[in-house]
């Protein structure tokens, strides 16, 4: 078997809140003993409802946050301490795309200059190469000729394309998308998902794709890990998960998608037949 790009081993992360003069301290276990490996070129979707620990896990998987217990290994080695020089060098190989693209971009700077800044932070390149790399990546995300625009002059879908361009210009090895399409209209969602899938093939990307939407996870994921209350309750290849879900919680999620499984489809047909007969 090929070595995984990312391996999480028994990762746990707790948050302490309160504990001041007026409130009792509470401890939330946001991620609870999670183990997960992501192979090169694989898209691992992580699904779960809000508060299940997906974003906390994403930050640990990206090396932005350290676990309280267990380990996050990137290509077999733990991430450097956040903020250190070694950690800053690591930032290029793991890129992050969040839900809200306008919050991720500087409203005053052109898209091209923000992509260029990412490039010069992580690589030495002469002005001509830099300009060519910016043009090339804008072209690949479908924003050819729009580099001079500022965020205000672009739609939500275009902004998320710009964020993707900025993440991919440094040719990362792992791309982590946390609810990257959740804020977009359904039709724009589909465009961005299709773009992501073609970029994935083109760049040979490995991806962790986080979503609360099992339909979206099915569209992009080679594998789906289902999270509930900080734990992964099921983690299997997408078609197995849909054909024969094992965890009760996965079945609940599947039942919420109209006719997602053969069983759900039969149940729906049976209900329709009863209605016709009545
Ligand atoms: N910075 C934080 N401080 C305290 N609690 C947090 C913090 N971030 C997340 N949590 C809590 O951890 C749990 C998991 O949150 P999160 O990882 O954001 O889940 P998700 O992304 O699935 O919605 C939630 O109960 C949330 O309230
Ligand atoms: Mg989240």
TrEMBL record:
PROSITE patterns: ABC_TRANSPORTER_1, ABC_TRANSPORTER_2
Record flagged with keyword ATP-binding: yes
SMART domains (UniProt xref): AAA
Ranges in a coiled coil: none
Pfam families listed in its UniProt record: ABC_tran
Cross-referenced SUPFAM superfamilies: P-loop containing nucleoside triphosphate hydrolases (SSF52540)
ABC transporter domain span: 6-254
UniProt family annotation: Belongs to the ABC transporter superfamily.
Protein known as: ATP-binding cassette domain-containing protein
Native organism taxonomy: Bacteria, Pseudomonadati, Pseudomonadota, Alphaproteobacteria, Rhodobacterales
């Amino acid at each position: 078997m090929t070595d995984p790009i990312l391996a999480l081993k028994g990762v746990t992360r707790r948050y302490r809140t309160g504990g001041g003069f007026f409130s009792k301290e509470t401890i939330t276990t946001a991620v609870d003993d999670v183990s997960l490996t992501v192979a090169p070129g694989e898209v691992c979707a992580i699904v779960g409802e809000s508060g299940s620990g997906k974003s906390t896990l994403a930050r640990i998987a990206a090396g932005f946050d350290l676990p309280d217990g267990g380990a996050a290994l990137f290509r077999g080695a733990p991430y450097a301490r956040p903020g250190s020089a070694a950690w800053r060098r690591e930032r290029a190989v793991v890129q992050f795309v969040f839900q809200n693209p306008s919050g991720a971009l500087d409203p005053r700077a052109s898209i091209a200059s923000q992509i260029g800044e990412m490039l010069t932070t992580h690589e030495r390149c002469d002005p001509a190469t830099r300009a060519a790399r910016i043009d090339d990546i804008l072209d690949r995300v479908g924003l050819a000729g729009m580099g001079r625009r500022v965020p205000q002059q672009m739609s939500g879908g275009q902004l998320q394309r710009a964020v993707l361009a900025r993440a991919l210009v440094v040719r990362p090895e792992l791309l982590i998308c946390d609810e990257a399409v959740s804020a977009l209209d359904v039709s724009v969602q589909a465009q961005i998902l299709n773009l992501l899938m073609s970029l994935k093939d083109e760049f040979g990307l490995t991806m962790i794709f986080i979503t609360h939407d099992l339909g979206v996870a099915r569209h992009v994921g080679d594998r789906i890990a289902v999270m509930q209350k900080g734990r992964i309750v099921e983690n299997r290849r997408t078609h197995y998960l849909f054909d024969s879900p094992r965890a009760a919680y996965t079945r609940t999620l599947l039942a919420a998608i109209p006719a997602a499984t053969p069983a759900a489809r039969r149940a729906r047909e049976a209900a329709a037949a009863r209605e016709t007969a009545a």
